[in-house]
């Protein structure tokens, strides 16, 4: 049997083989970052004390120089961050998008900040006892619900409560803070109504729904949209500008229901936001075409810091419903793909579920396995190949269906499931692994772009706003003079480190020493390149 090819067929075959050869040549380039930069990622102090390691810092802010405190000397609080860093620069750009049934509804920067100011006026008029900048319970506003756009208004102190919090955790938060004003969505209204009798809560703000949903006449019931509408009719009020040390939020961990509240100031948040920006390589800078999607709960400080950072950069921020184990992962991914994020933030367990979903639907393909293995091999040589023939034949379809096809990088908190290599290979995305601590306003250390050598417990180097050292943990068998790497308890000092635990001075003294070092409870070793490798908890 013979096969005859006409001119068109020859041309098509030549094009296919030519494209394959071109992609293969492009895939053979050198590493994405110079090995010298990978091998020396932190600045190391020359002096160390007995029982301690040297002090490690970001190479951008080495030992002997001031730590990073702000993005702009005119910005010292979240109020100034919004009005100086955001409002004047990106007024008509889309800012916040809330998923509603099948699509996202978007509000511009101007619309969002106008609503914030109207809400401030409306709520101030409706609740005269709600004070600003008082640093006590008269400033507190609790927010219980899914991640939303209704956090941090002027000089009030927000107390975020995650949507999946237990009743015992919510009760603990209310009683510890003496909370009087609580915002809640209707999905959690019945739970709250069963908890607040006999507590300090006297005002409920419904984030959605109508006031008629609450029959209890012993509490004042307000509706968010009504407060905004009322505020729009009131004369502009003098805005309360917090100073750097004013409390911005008190965060309670829903993962540990009885833990004390972490007091975070405006200074903490501003420094953390600034650090996220300066650590980006020039080619990865964020702009108006970027979109951030956060799958971290509302009580996660890191998620809020990232929302602020992307807002400062002119990007849009999408709020999708939190994933629930009771729903099909394919349904959740439809909401993710609809947002078309360029940046995604999540914990390891959700990404492990998404990985398993992809493996189930595509993992049996020869092209998938072959391409995946090739990509892992390239990453071992320091290069993330994004334009191979396997991308053209299989991976781009997965990228489009799962994340909308525009994903640039993922922030990954505590990679216990070892998912980072998978998402780098399949999604063509950088994966930034972080050590998340509420006490450090979200992030303590962060891996750098283009570092593909670290594994799940490697969490990078200190942020520009803090410094890190190890202290002996002899009872755990770890010492700072261990070989080949120093080992011990991770300690952090910096501008992002919390003020203390709310009304728990003894607990604060247990973890925060007189020199400002916070003892995290994490055990780790510092690798020769200056990165932190976690060994477990004390």
TrEMBL record:
MF-aspect GO terms: ATP binding; long-chain fatty acid-CoA ligase activity
Residues covered by the AMP-dependent synthetase/ligase domain: 151-502
Gene3D superfamilies named among the record's database cross-references: N-terminal domain of ligase-like
Pfam families (alphabetical): AMP-binding (PF00501)
Any one GO CC term of the record: membrane
Keyword terms, alphabetized: ATP-binding, Nucleotide-binding
Name of protein: Acetyl-CoA synthetase-like protein
Organism: Hesseltinella vesiculosa
């Amino acid at each position: 049997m013979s096969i005859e090819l006409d001119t068109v067929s020859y041309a098509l075959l030549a094009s296919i083989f030519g494209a394959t050869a071109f992609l293969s040549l492009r895939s053979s380039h050198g590493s994405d970052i110079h090995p010298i930069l990978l091998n020396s990622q932190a600045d190391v102090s020359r002096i160390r004390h007995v029982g301690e390691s040297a002090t490690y810092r970001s190479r951008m802010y080495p030992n002997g120089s001031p730590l990073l405190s702000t993005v702009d000397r005119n910005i010292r609080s979240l109020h100034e961050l919004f009005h100086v860093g955001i409002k004047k620069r990106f007024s008509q750009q889309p800012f916040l998008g809330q998923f509603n049934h099948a699509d996202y509804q978007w509000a511009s920067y101007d619309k969002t900040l106008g609503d914030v100011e109207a809400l401030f006026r409306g709520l101030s008029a409706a609740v005269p006892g709600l004070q600003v900048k008082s640093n006590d319970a008269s400033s507190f506003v609790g927010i219980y619900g899914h991640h939303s756009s209704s956090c941090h208004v002027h000089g009030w102190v927000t107390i975020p409560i995650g949507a999946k919090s237990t009743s015992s955790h919510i009760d603990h938060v209310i009683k510890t803070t003496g909370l009087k004003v609580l915002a809640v969505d209707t999905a959690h209204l019945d739970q709250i109504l069963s908890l607040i009798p006999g507590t300090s809560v006297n005002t409920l703000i419904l984030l959605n729904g109508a006031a008629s949903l609450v029959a209890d006449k012993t509490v004042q019931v307000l509706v968010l949209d009504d407060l905004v509408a009322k505020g729009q009719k009131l004369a502009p009020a003098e805005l309360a500008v917090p100073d750097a040390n004013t409390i911005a939020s008190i965060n309670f961990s829903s993962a540990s229901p009885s833990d004390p509240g972490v007091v975070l100031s405006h200074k903490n948040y501003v420094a953390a936001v600034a650090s996220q920006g300066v650590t980006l390589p020039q080619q990865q800078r964020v702009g108006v075409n970027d979109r951030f999607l956060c799958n971290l709960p509302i009580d996660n400080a890191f998620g809020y810091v990232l929302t602020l950072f992307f807002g400062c950069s002119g990007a849009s921020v999408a709020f999708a419903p939190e994933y629930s184990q009771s729903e099909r992962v394919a349904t959740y991914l439809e909401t993710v793909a609809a947002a078309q994020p360029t940046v995604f933030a999540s914990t390891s367990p959700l990404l492990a579920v998404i990985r398993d979903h992809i493996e189930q639907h595509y993992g049996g393909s020869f092209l998938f396995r072959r391409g995946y293995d090739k990509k892992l091999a390239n990453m071992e040589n320091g290069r993330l190949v994004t334009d191979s023939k396997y991308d053209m034949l299989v991976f781009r379809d997965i990228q489009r269906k799962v994340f909308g096809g525009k994903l640039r990088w993922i922030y990954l908190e505590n990679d216990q499931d070892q998912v980072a290599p998978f998402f780098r290979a399949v999604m063509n995305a950088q994966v930034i692994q972080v050590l998340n601590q509420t006490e450090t306003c979200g992030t303590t250390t962060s891996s750098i772009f283009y570092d593909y050598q670290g594994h799940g417990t490697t969490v990078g180097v200190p942020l520009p706003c803090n410094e890190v050292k190890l202290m002996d943990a002899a009872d755990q068998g770890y010492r700072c003079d261990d070989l080949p790497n120093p080992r011990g308890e991770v300690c952090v000092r910096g501008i992002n480190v919390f003020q203390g635990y709310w009304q728990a001075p003894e607990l604060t003294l247990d973890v925060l020493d007189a020199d400002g070092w916070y003892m995290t409870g994490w055990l780790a070793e510092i690798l020769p390149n200056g990165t932190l490798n976690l060994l477990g908890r004390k």
